[in-house]
Design goal:
Low-confidence stretches: none
CATH topology of the largest domain: Aspartate Aminotransferase, domain 2
Structural class: alpha/beta
Mean pLDDT: 93
Largest sheet: 4 strands, parallel
């Protein structure tokens, strides 16, 4: 299809459901969209930023409001009636996480945090990084995983990165295995990679977890981008540390995440401090006298969000009622259609209008697409201008490097020397946008990207409307679109 018009959408939709055999699933999720996410259509929004944050269902908000209205809850660190009520809902939320991820409570702990970054910080600050320890991680990682390297380096541990390869931005499997199996005297070893890239949507092999264990590594599997639309079964795969953000899964609340940690691995962590709620006893008269509380309690600093945690149970039940496999199949079908259409979009001179960074099919990838829009001569339309123009039509896409500089640097051929310009003390570009302009002016490379991502409430109408928007740039010069 080369042109997109509203009158053609029904024909295209019928072809879509016929091609994917998904009429029943598509209709069911269309009804869910109307019932629980109707504000999108009522307000005219196309939301394509699910990797940035999920959307809450109206039923979640209603259920949580009713629960709060029907109970009196206080700080759970006591045994009065309001504290016991709060403790009940905290325990219920923890049980819901175990159930959703099929994690055995005898094997795992669920530690509530502010978000996935908070979960990662717990690991970074507490892992026994010292002289002779090793931290192996992938280029394809969120900055909150990259940031753990600073704890590692401060402790004297060796830090090794494994690159991704173009064009699909997959990790080099030979280098991964070489890193995991190399002869090493590392006493403590931590291997960190994402189940799904938040940049390219690539899904990396979960089989690496067992391979790493066989070679003495602890494994941190960043699941923040994976869990919203994929089944993560912790009875089948057994990473040692799994960071999550619940708002990316079901939109509400936005200040809660978790670290799901194997008890065996958790026992290796040494917290650098203690806080209210994390200890059973402390003394100010005896320097260094304190007893860290066992299990998850020893890692949940201060008072947990006891009012918000009841919303976690509601959100996980919401996903379970729909079925994570249903959500996965739906977004994969939409992603397949979108990738095909983007790949065939062309200017009148035959030049492609879209450059995709990452896999161009749904093979081993999630429904997150990083791309450029190109003009007839192959020049890149200014990505922030595209974001602004999309915004004028109430289409939400995201631009930037998505806190994943490793993928961005490889995707856009940015070298170490190019990046050095942004860390030159005489230049002092302190923001991402300033760095982008320094590199673009010096090299002509554009270290910025557009990202569209799909989720629970996405519909065919959303992706079709986005393609209408993308097709509107046909035969327009990048200079005419402007910055």
């Amino acid at each position: 299809m080369s042109d997109y018009h509203p009158k053609d959408r029904e024909f295209a939709f019928q072809a879509f459901v016929d091609a994917h055999g998904s009429r029943n699933r598509t209709d069911a999720l269309g009804e869910l969209r109307s019932a629980d996410y109707g504000r999108l259509d009522r307000l005219g929004h196309v939301y394509l930023d699910y990797t940035g944050g999920g959307l809450y269902a109206e039923s979640q908000i209603t259920a949580h409001h009713e629960l709060l209205s029907d109970h009196v809850m206080g700080n759970p660190h006591s045994h009065n009636p309001s504290s016991l009520a709060a403790t009940h809902f905290v325990d219920e939320a923890r049980a819901a996480v175990f159930e959703f991820f099929n994690a055995d409570p005898d094997e795992y702990e669920v530690i509530f945090t502010a978000n996935a970054s908070g979960a990662l910080k717990l690991v970074g600050e507490s892992y026994p990084f010292e002289e002779g320890a090793c931290y192996l991680l992938s280029y394809d990682n969120h900055n909150s995983v990259n940031g753990i390297r600073e704890f590692a380096r401060r402790g004297g541990a060796e830090v090794v990165y494994v690159p991704v390869r173009k064009p699909e931005l997959r990790l080099d499997e030979d280098l991964i295995r070489r890193g995991l199996t190399r002869e090493s005297s590392c006493k403590h070893r931590l291997f960190a990679y994402p189940a799904q890239s938040n940049f390219s949507g690539v899904q990396h092999p979960l089989e690496w977890i067992e391979e790493a264990h066989e070679n003495g590594w602890d494994v941190l599997l960043d699941s923040a981008a994976f869990a919203p639309t994929n089944r993560l079964d912790l009875s089948a795969i057994k990473p040692d540390f799994v960071p999550l953000s619940f708002y990316k899964m079901f939109g509400y609340p936005t200040g809660l995440g978790a670290l799901i940690a194997r008890k065996e691995a958790l026992g290796k962590l040494r917290r650098p401090w203690f806080a209210g709620g994390t200890i059973t006893l402390a003394s100010v008269q005896g320097e260094g006298w304190y007893h860290l509380a066992p299990g998850s309690t020893g890692f949940e600093d201060g008072t947990v969000d006891y009012l918000g945690l009841s919303a976690i149970t509601i959100g996980l039940r919401h996903l379970s009622s729909i079925g994570i496999d249903t959500i996965h199949g739906h977004v994969t079908d939409l992603c397949d259609w979108l990738l095909t259409q983007m790949g065939s979009l062309a200017h009148s001179n035959g030049a492609p209008m879209v450059q995709i960074f990452g896999p161009e099919t749904t093979d081993r990838r999630g429904a997150t697409i990083a791309f450029y829009l190109l003009d007839p001569e192959g020049a890149v339309y200014d990505v922030q201008r595209i974001e602004a123009l999309a915004g004028e039509q109430l289409i939400s896409v995201r631009t930037g490097c998505f806190c994943n500089p490793g993928d961005g640097e490889i995707a856009h051929n940015i070298t170490r020397d190019d990046m050095a310009e942004c860390f030159d003390e005489s230049t002092v570009p302190v923001t991402y946008n300033q760095c982008q302009r320094v590199i673009e002016d010096a090299t002509g490379k554009v270290p910025n990207t557009i990202r569209a991502s799909l989720g629970i409430a996405s519909t065919f109408a959303d992706v079709y409307r986005f393609m209408e928007f993308a097709a509107s740039f046909r035969d327009r010069a990048a200079g005419d679109v402007g910055r």
